[in-house]
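Exercise 7.
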Amino acid sequence: MSGNSCLLWKNLSLLFRRCISWFPTVIDCFKQVLMNVPSLNMSRTVSPSQGIVPPARLTTYESTNPGTSGSFGQSEPVSSDSNDIELLSVSWNQDRSCFAAGTSRGFRIYNCEPFKETFRRVLKSGGFKIVEMLFRTNILALVGASANSQYPPNKVMIWDDQQSRCIGEFSFRSDVRAVKLRRDRLVVVLEHKIYVYNFMDLKLLHQIETLANPRGLCCLSLHSNTSVLACPGLQRGQVRVEHFGLNMTKLIYAHDSQIACFTLTTDGLLLATASTRGTLIRIFNTLDGTRLQEVRRGVDRAEIYSIALSSNVQWLAVSSDKGTIHLFGLRVRVVGEDTSSHATPAKSPALFNQNSSTSLDALISPSTCANPGSSLSFMRGVLPKYFSSEWSFAQFHLPEDTQFIAAFGSQNTVIILGMDGSFYRCRFDAVNGGDMLQQEYVRFLKTDIRPC
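Solution. The predicted structure, written as tokens, is:
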């Protein structure tokens, strides 16, 4: 072997030994990078200039530039002929005082009492399939529709409408099914996973695996001193309830069929559920999973669109594809509630402190109304369960070919939104029940009531 060949071989051997010695260090660095990646399924971007506005600085939004706006990226305002606009979604804000309409041209925000369009934003690039409000503030969570060329359906944008800018973005590998907000939390729902973030810095706090959840079912408590989340479990008919303040998870086997719809009381203590059969609605204590009451919407299978609980936990409303809003009286209360007062939600000191579950039992209590039942209900336990069912106390009839969601207004009223662009307000007789009386009807996509 020549001298040059020997020298080359020695250099190659030295280089190989050095590579071997560096290899563990490279591996350690790679592991450290992986540990700092929040999730392989998503990425996030936070505006570096000011970040998320703290809740104390959120302002009640009253539009200062009514009409259309071209402040979304490079899009420009366009004419908003209501005949060309398709309604993609409707959703209430947290206290049901407002609602948002996502359209094929942007979105609009409406006040419920009195009914009034507050503001609208119109885009050339497409519309939004999810528009989630944060109470009555200037903060919105937006998810684009499939036809939106600028904001795809796998991206969540946190929009500050007062500053007319995006203050945070999340991108995922799959489409976003729902977004839920409260003043300290932001929740993003995918079909098989739920991400819970701190609203202040958008830091990821929790990841929850779920059964296939194409409806984006998820619900949050709203009281600032309780932190409760309900979502589908990993088994059919199961609801998972996270009491984050108590560091406790409760699995409630609510139905034999798949879960179709559910909602929480504002304090997160009670859960109302319906299955894909759509015949029964059940109310549970979220702390111990006890079933407290069961009411019957009907006998035929139905698709449940929404379940609403009144703020005083005295009434429950259900909408379905059968075209009827059913109203039921509830017989549940929280220990320590003043049953003579129904002005505010029940408040238990133990619940607000979240330091004890023994005093949080929800009890069956006398109700000021009685849901109708079968004349053979006295033979409960002998005849099939159908004959002991509680039926709806009051009803309101709607077109069967439209999807509606319902919520409670003030003074024994129910407010209803339709995917045909309709707004209803009706009143029920809290003593005698029966058919509700329509008080107001508006076609809100075609109304001439504009922001002023």
